[in-house]
Amino acid sequence: MTGFERLPGDFYGYADLLSDEDKEVLAKVRRFLADEVAPIADEYWERAEFPHHLIPGIAGLGIVGLGMDWPDRPRRSKLLTSFIALEFARVDPSMATFFGVHNGLAMASVDLCGSPEQKERWLPAMRSMEQIGAFGLTEPHGGSDVAGGLETIARRDGDKWVLDGAKRWIGNATFADLVIIWARDEADDQVKGFVVEKGTPGFDARKIERKLALRTVQNADITLTGCRVPDANRLTGANSFRDTGKVLRLTRGGVAWSAVGAMMGAYELARDYATERVQFGKPIAKFQLVQDHLATILSNVTASLGMAVRVAQLQDNGVFRDEQAAMAKSFCTSRLRESVAHAREVFGGNGIVLDYQIGRFFNDAEALYSYEGTREMNTLIVGRAATGMGAFV
């Protein structure tokens, strides 16, 4: 195997679990991110704009939908697709989130909940990235309690459905071609999934401004006002929140991988800076307290990566459970938050200047820590599994 090197943050060599063929895919992704994404990440983050010109290049990597079965391509392992998510987050958590929303949340909704006809209708264009997807679940008044408190309503009207309500924090929604909207059917009070296509009357997406994290991601406030979608756009396999949960279980584990990737990126920045920054006549990497920061970050990365690898193995074996997803998401993002603080401290005052990149990781960690279930909510899911008793309000 040539062209593939172990990352400095992969201290135990977990990537060696991949086959040579998988490593070749990963090396290709790594080169693209280093050549095309890394040089512009700070610029687009600062301007809070999305680099649309990168989409054809990402599509050309052949990694979209890699975890799904296709007539011309069998699915690849969850371990490989997870390492790809890590590579994205290691360079730019914003681009990792964009890719995760499209390739994970949106495509998985169609793949897991769509009919064969619906999969044929939408997935090929999403795989080629000719159509970009978004996922609309969170609402202005509902985050952690969205399972029981979904306010967006769907009403059947002949051969169409009428959607009314609002969504918030919906990544990619300002430019997405397809937005998966989860709404409560007023007839049976069950949550159902709908694909709202760009240009549908009654659908309005407005960019959320003044964000301090994942600024490159185009999050939107969505308003649905008498938005009429054909019954053919109702995902036939999405008939209760349990079906929504299938998608979230899959992607919550992916957030753990993004957290590991962001930790690795922060570690590499801090390590490199420490070896180059000279104080008191020697590189600060030679000071014990600086090495303590680096060792703490590296330990957090190693522990989190070990957990994430096991997550991928459980997913590949088809035995992954909600509480395991919750533990991975909660633990890895908590360690991320701690690690970027250590990394920023290594930079001293330079850590708050975007030129040194670490400030971007420091801020972005806050978003990964919060989305796909807060630490508290995920802790309660784990606690229920551990004790057999629910502590939810």
From TrEMBL:
Named cofactor requirement(s): FAD
Q: Which InterPro entries match?
A: ACX4-like, Acyl-CoA_DH_CS, Acyl-CoA_Oxase/DH_mid-dom, Acyl-CoA_Oxase/DH_mid-dom_sf, AcylCo_DH-like_C, AcylCo_DH/oxidase_C, AcylCoA_DH/ox_N, AcylCoA_DH/ox_N_sf
Gene3D superfamilies hit by this protein: Acyl-CoA dehydrogenase/oxidase, N-terminal domain, Butyryl-CoA Dehydrogenase, subunit A, domain 2, Butyryl-CoA Dehydrogenase, subunit A, domain 3
Q: Which SUPFAM superfamilies match?
A: Acyl-CoA dehydrogenase C-terminal domain-like, Acyl-CoA dehydrogenase NM domain-like
Q: Which residues form the Acyl-CoA dehydrogenase/oxidase N-terminal domain?
A: 19-130
Q: Does the keyword Oxidoreductase apply?
A: yes
Where does the Acyl-CoA dehydrogenase/oxidase C-terminal domain start and stop, copy by copy?
A: 246-386
The keyword Oxidoreductase appears for this protein:
yes
Which family is it part of?
Belongs to the acyl-CoA dehydrogenase family.
UniProt name for this protein:
Acyl-CoA dehydrogenase family protein
